[in-house]
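User: Show me a protein chain along with its predicted structure.
Assistant: Here is one chain, sequence first, then structure tokens.
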Amino acid sequence: MGQNWLNILGMWSWEPSILIGTGVFISAYLLAVGPMRKRITSVGSIKRGQIVWFGLGTLVILFALISPLDPLGDEYLFSAHMIQHMLLAMIAPPLLLFGTPGWLVEAIIRRTPVRRTALFLTRPATAFLLFNIIYLGWHIPVLYEAALNNETIHIFEHLLFMMTGVINWWPILSPTPELPRLSYPGQALYLFLEAVPCTILGAIISFAPTVMYPTYAVAARILPLNPMDDQQIAGLVMAMPAGMIYLVAFSVVFLKWLESENRPSALQQDPKTHS
């Protein structure tokens, strides 16, 4: 058992394409918010905290793709693959949005056709359907197995998860009024609904009577988990931690909603009436 864990910890993959891709990604961001900023905007600024958030989001992506989660999920454990998908689609995207200044988005969508496309994609209904159809659709066994067996398809799948993940969080975390956020009641409803699809899929996976994906049925057992136990854990990962992300966000939005409702009444009170 100890040797198995040593083998797993040695599964880090320093794939050049991943290292170069994430390096170019963060470098382009740092260039845009640093040396190029004055060419992009005359009034925009960048906070140190935003750079930290964006850096954390990039590190989450890098960890998901080069850590043992990647080979474990590709060859051995469905549950490891679910954790990787959650990192790419649900955790990294909001971190990237926290770190993106509004003026940068406004510069990107300056041209009318780009703005129209962005407005359409970030509408709540579009964002919700686009993300969930893509995220859930890739878990159809034939598509899931295709991604496992073809690296190009697998890369395309991961890129889709990250891009639609950002779009999915846009109605909640948009950094610019050009592509507006929902109102607080709308955000609360949106986040509540977001928890439903992953919970349903998690239940389907956990309670499936047989192993859904042939790769894991025949995979070597590097941990004391049989394929059905592994699949049940994968379903729980999909239903519980993923659902908790939306629940935490819902709680934050709900508190902000209550605060915004109470603030005007407090401002309208005449302090003299209490003297």
